[in-house]
Amino acid sequence: MKSLSRLMAIMRKEVRQMRRDRLTFAMIFGMPLMQILLFGYAINMDVRNLTTAVADESNTHLSREFVARLEQTQVTKIRYRVNTAAELEELMRAGEISVGVAIPKDFDRRVIDDNRTAVHILVDGSDPTIGGIVDALRNMPLAFDTTPVQQKHDLIEVRPYYNPERRTPINVIPGLMGVILTMTMMLFTAVSIVRERERGNLELLINTPVSSAELMIGKVMPYIAIGLVQLALIVWAGDLLFDVPVRGSIIDLYVAASLFIAANLALGLFISTAVKTQFQAMQMTFFLIMPSILLSGFVFPFEGMPVVAQYLGEALPITHFIRLTRGIMLREAGLVELSGALIYLGTFSIITITAATLRFSKRLD
Amino acid sequence: MNEQLAIRARGLTKQFGDLRAVNHLDLDVPRASIYGFLGPNGSGKSTTIRLLCGLLTPTEGGANVLGIEIPRDSKLLKPNIGYMTQKFSLFGDMTVLENLQFMSEIYSYPKGERASRIDELLWKYDLTQQRDQFADTMSGGQRQPLALASAVLHKPELLLLDEPTSAVDPQSRRDFWANLFRLAEAGTTILVSTHYMDEAERCHRLAILDHGTKVADGTPRDLQNNTGMTIIEVLANDPYRAQVVIDEIPVVASVTQLGVRLRVLVPDTVDDALDIVTKALDRKNVRAEVHTAEATLEDVFVAVTMKPEQLAA
Is residue B59 left, alpha or beta, with left meaning phi > 0 and alpha meaning psi from -120 to 50? Predict the structure, then answer.
C-alpha cells in the first residue's frame, strides 16, 4: 500500500516534469511525425531519374531511337550529350553523372550481330543503390523496326506477396516504428536518473523510503503510455500519407509495442545507472541507435548479413519488433505465430530492468 | 543502547582512496538537542552526516542511530530521518506546493492529513505566498525554509542538516535557527554542520572536526572554558607591527588580527603570559593596550585545530 503510494508519487512527478519540459514534450509528437515524413518520402528503393550522359558516336536513326527509349524508362535522365566515351568517364569521376551510355560508331551493325554487344553502359558503382539498376538496364527490351522482338517465355514467375505493387513505404514504415520508438524511448530514460544525479535531486530521493524498484518502475510506466501515443501517431500518419495498412489486429500491434517500449525504456534506465553525465548517456544511446538501424533488418535484409552481425542483430529488441510489426501489419499474422519475438522482448525487459535496479544503489559510494 | 542518545557512533571511519575523510569518530548525540559539527571545508562534516544516514558505507566502525544499526539496517532508518542536503535538492521545475505534496506521498503521510499538514508547514515556514512558485525561481533565502519544511514534513525524530545556511542572508539565518529551536523543543534531535562560529554557538553541544578527526566536543561554554589557553587581547595603533613583535615571542601559540585588535593565544602552562606580551611590546616601543579576555568559539577553534608543532612552540 505504501509502496503503491510511492510508486504513484514517482509517476506523477515524472509526468509533471515532462509536461513542463516543452522541448521534450514537443519531441514526443514532433519526432515521429518528422521522421515519418522524412523517411517515408525520402527512402525510396526504386531508382529513378539518374543523371545520365550519352556519347552517341554512331548517330543513326537506330541509335537515336535507342536513346529515346532509354529516356522513356524514366530510370535515366539525360543531362549531357558528349562526343566520346572518354568524356563520359571524366563526367563520372567528377560526380556529374551516375550513368554513362556509350554508343559506338558501328552500333547498327552490332545490333544485328548476335555475338557482339551493341552498347556500353557505365554505372557509378561507388553508390551502392545505383548498382542495382544494372540489371534493369541490361534487360531493357530493344525492339527495333528491323529486328522483330521474340517474346521469351518466363520460366519463373515471381509474385510479391503482401506488397504486390512493391511500394517502398510499406516496407519502411513498420520498421520505422521501431527506429522512432528506440530513439525517443531510450533517450528519455537514459538521461532521467543521471539528470537527477546532476541536479542533486537523487541525494534527496535516496534518503527517502522510496525503493530502487519503485523508482525504476515509476520512471518507466508513464513513458510506456507516451510510446503508445507515438505508435498511434505513426500508424495514423502511415495510413493517411502512405496508405500503409494494418492488416492484422491493432490490439496485437499495441501489445507488441508495449513490450518493445518497455524493453527500450529498461535499456535506457540501465544506461542511466551506468553513466556519470547526461552527455555520456546521450552518447551511449546513439551508440546503440546506429546498430538498431543497420543490423535490425530495417534497411538491409537480415538474412544477407554476416553471421556475427546477425547475432548482434538478434540481441537488439528492435530486430524482434520489426518482425512483429511486419508480421502483424502486413502479413496479418497473430501474436501466437509471432510468440518467439514477443517472448524475447518480454524477457529482455525484465532482465534489463532488474539489472538496472540492482545496479542502482541507494548509496553514494 | 542509551535511551537518552539519538546517535552513538564508535570508531566511525571513511577512507576515499588515499584520503581519510573521517577518522575513528566517536559521537554521542543526546535526544531533543541541537548538535553542531563545526569545521572548515573538507573537515569531514558532510561525509559524517552521510555515513550516519546510510548514504555512505563506513570503512570501519559503525553507529547506532535511533536504535537502528548503521550501516546494516539503514533502510529502516529512512522513514525516521529528515535530511537536508548541502546543495538545494528539491525539484526546481515543480512548485512549492507540488514539492511538498511529493514528499508527503513519498513518506506515505496519512492521506487524510496531507493537505492540512502541508497548509500548516506553508504557514509555519512563511511559504504561503510562494505556494505556486517554481522552486527554481526562488532565492536562496526562500529555498531554505522550503527545504526545511520538506525535511520535517513527515515529522522525523532526527534531522540531519548539512550546512543548511551557507547560501543564506543573516535575517533568513536567524529565522532558520528560530525554527530549529522550535523543532528541538518539540523533541526532534537535530544534527547540523556549519562553518559559522555564531551558528556553532547556538548549538546545545558541539563537535569540532579537523581533517576528519574530532578535535574537541562539549557544550560551547565548556569548550570556551577549557581551551588550555590564556587569551590576550592587544589593542594597538599599529596592529601590524604589534603582530610582528608578538609573533616572535616563543611561547605564543597563535596571533589573529581582528581589525585593530589582536587575539593572542598562549598555552595556560605559561604562568605570566600577560606580562611576557606586555614587556615584549614595550621593548620594541609598540604602544598598545594589553589585557586578558574570555575565550570565544573562534579562539577554541584556533586552539584545537592547531598543528602539534605549533603547540610545542
Answer: alpha
